[in-house]
Backbone:
């Protein structure tokens, strides 16, 4: 059947939110204020709550701080939020 809906792009690249050791936040490669994170995510994702968002943090950042960032993202209506980690190198 035909539809007017746009094609769903399941292969769309995820957005990445990073937290450095000093607590600074980055959306992709741009530094962002924590209060501006949710509105900026909504603007960048074109208000698509199904976009994948990966959260990563420096090893010095506490788990609670990372969970706080994830909570803000989820409270903004995004449901596909995941932690990413660097895998250990195999010698």
Residues:
């Amino acid at each position: 059947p035909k539809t007017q809906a746009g094609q769903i792009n399941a292969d769309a690249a995820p957005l990445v939110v990073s937290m450095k050791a000093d607590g600074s936040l980055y959306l992709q490669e741009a530094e962002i204020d924590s209060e501006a994170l949710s509105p900026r995510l909504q603007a960048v994702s074109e208000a698509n709550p199904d976009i994948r968002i990966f959260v990563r943090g420096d090893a010095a950042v506490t788990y609670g701080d990372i969970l706080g960032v994830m909570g803000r993202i989820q409270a903004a209506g995004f449901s596909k939020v995941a932690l990413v980690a660097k895998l250990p190198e195999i010698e």
User: Anything to note?
Assistant: The longest helix spans residues 63-75.
